[in-house]
Amino acid sequence: MTASTLRRNAPSLLLFVVAMILVQLVRGDLVETEREVKNKHDVYFLPPPPQVKALSMGYGYAVADVLWAHVLVSQGLHSKERRRFENLNQLYDVIYELDPEWRTPYLMADALLSFQAQRMSYEDTLKVREILERGTEQRPYDAEIWLNLGQFVSFLAPSSYLEPDHPEMAAKWRIEGTEYLARAAELSGGDSRLAWQALGGASILKKSGNQTAALRFLQRTYERTTDPELRHNIELQIRSLEAASSETQQAIQTLRLDALRAREEAFKKHLREELPFVSWEMALLLGPRPRPAACAGGEDSPACATDWRTWSERFDAEHREAERQERRLPAQTSP
Fold it and tell me: What residue spans define the domains of the chain?
């Protein structure tokens, strides 16, 4: 670099050095000020959900993705700063408006709203249930959403957020949650993991003194699972309920458990004989194969049924009548 070039650039170099010195002088005070200033409240930056959907110009799913990414990042930042995420409820409403069938937000709703720096409020507790119930409306055959709803309503919310100040509501929620858990067990299909988790609903019913409802819950779960270990566990629970019943009632409940086993064996036999080439799930979808020749003398036989519900009802009726005559018990209706 020549002397003339240095002289020409000297003012700029001098200004740069002075600027660096000034930055160094004020930086320390600014750092201390930044440490003392903390965000205390969130600013909500979106219009109402219907307007957001209109502004998305047909790209609602894409906007929902962006907002969901913002929710996850902001949740982490708020947890780090030990602040409550105040906009979470509003953002959930917007995401629901943009993409109501999106599964992931429903599955994470209870975790996101409950995992806050402060204890979840009563309003937030109601909001979580509202969000999960939306999920069951939009995805009525999703067992995992039903399971999350049942676990939150039966276990998490009553014991952690409702019981101290709202004991009556907590007791009511526990019973209502068992219906959600029963539905989750019904929809679990081949996923025995979901059915195992849903089985806690029977314990709630037993503790509340509703033995009949607990027995019905266990029977419904027994009918719809193929996991041998889970079925054995349910049988033990049914036996324990029978032991607490009167002698006549115990005999009746034993008949019902025997009927479930007999129906299962008849169902397997029907599949082996009529539908040996399809899976268990496909057979449930197709329904039973009727036999016209067996219906010649009447239409009350299971062989005449065209759907599994009718087939089960007719088979159970025949089985109960046979057992009643054998054991000489009064006729009983199914639960």
Answer: 45-118, 141-241, 245-335
